Amino acid sequence: MRMIENKVEKNWAGQRIVSPDYLLFEAPREKHFMTGSEAVKEAVKRASVDASVSYPITPQSEAAHLIGELWAEGYVGVYFRGENEFGVMSEVAGAAMAGARVITTTSGPGTLRAFENFPMWSGTRIPVQLVLMARGVNSPLSIQPDNLEVDFLLDTGCMIWYAENVQELFDMILAGFAVAEQPDVHVPVITAVDGFFVSHTREAIYLPPDDIALPPYAPYKSPMPVIDAEIPPGRFLRDPFVMKSNYISYATHASWQWEVRSAIERSRPYAKHYLKGLTEEFGEKDSEVVFIACGTAASQAKEAVRMLEETEGIKSKVVKLKTIRPFPYEEILEATKNAKYIFIPEFNVVGWLEREVRKALYKKSDAEIIGTPRVAGGMTMPKEIIVREVLEYIK
Amino acid sequence: MAKLGPAHYSPYPVAVYEGILTPPKGKALLFTEIVDEEQAMREAAKAMLTRENATIFPGPQVLYAWNDEAKEKAKLIKEMAQILDAKIIPMYDYRPKYPKIDPEVEINPNHPNLTIWHNKIKACIFIGVHCHYANVALKIIRSETDCFTIAMCSQAGHEDAMITLRDQHVEEIEKFLEVAKEVKKELGKA
User: Fold this and answer.
1) Closest chain B residue to A330 measured between Cα atoms?
2) pTM of the predicted model, to two decimals?
């Protein structure tokens, strides 16, 4: 960061530094037409990102290489290819511990290859951002839309947000840094989108100018010291009370893990502000038929809402979840108070969102919760299928 | 924070799971209530002046001369100890101490209860401790002890303390010292 003529504060890429509120809500925007991968590039371009590490895996490879182009253009400080996803997630952790704002991307099995790092990220309180372009996990390998890997990530201590479309992905990446770097939050944020449906699909998107950017990361507000400089040359992980099997280490571990989860809960007011709510509703407010969904399953459910009204005269609504961690318990309870049927359309075989919703509404709602339609492995979810399943249940 | 400890076998339930978050800017937390900063400062001073073996736990952010603010705060903390008739036991780093710490000379975030038990501390102030370590320690203290915890934080505060004062910089600490002097006078201890 440097001060130049006219006292306009600029980042080292020469962009004018503006507040997250200005960048997200106030700056004038122009219409463009681009893919989710290109939207990632546009968001990173405006995010004063210090470092990014990439490794190719479908469908996020293009997003990763476009971030590389930003390095060549002078917008990203450090960029290189990791040895594999485990290496990538370790390397971005090192950069974050050294005080850098970092972002990376992955998909499907790459997520699992890197997995040990995610609870390490949250446990070391680094506000790394991972853009997860979901593609599912299976053997034989699937490279199709499916979001099973999100299920694995739910309890890593990372925030998990879910973007429905290209526009939301762009905005969430910028908001993600603003929330994750709050001193009382300061845990990683995983910004998920459905691979292919969002990563590879061109949509209208409104972008602010590219000569403005987020304020740089302020590492001295971190809840932990930046690296551990007590003993030179600096240690990269914290002291190992893990190695002591006694009651003291148990209490510390318990408190530490509660603290990481507490940090996610503290993100609620910030996320509500920057995302304009943890949920978003579409359709008739007091409907008895409610869809709870995230990502493109919400898009399909919105089409089903239209079709149900037009063809059957049935009023319904969609409650789209923008955050999965923190989970919007209160918002769901409020949004379903008139519900008789709650449908949870998902792009995975296990129904992880259905589980989450059932837990949230257990003994709090009399509505019937129906985990359908559920498609996976690259299957699409046409609105006709959703409508047919609704009619089977409610008639 | 919902109530004074000892709360449970493990650091549970933690404050956020009881619906308590850090206070908004300009406000403070007094147990479960969001209150004006001055009210919280008065209650903090009262707790420190009336409970046994009140102790200030300064952390690395004020123990080392990182910047001018740290130096200024350190001087004010010494004055605070005099006004509150409190001891100072530093948390000078975050490394767990093995085979054991000397609880008369330091406190450690990974086992803060040892220092509190040993010195029979019934009220304390955390100041200058990095937020994560303060939060880890405050949960354990509430779980294992009946110590009344007060957090004076330069960032967003700590909901696991019984009193949380946020955005505490030099000006706010000076204000707290004035409040503490008044409370001390009211208690007839001046």
Assistant:
1) B19
2) 0.95
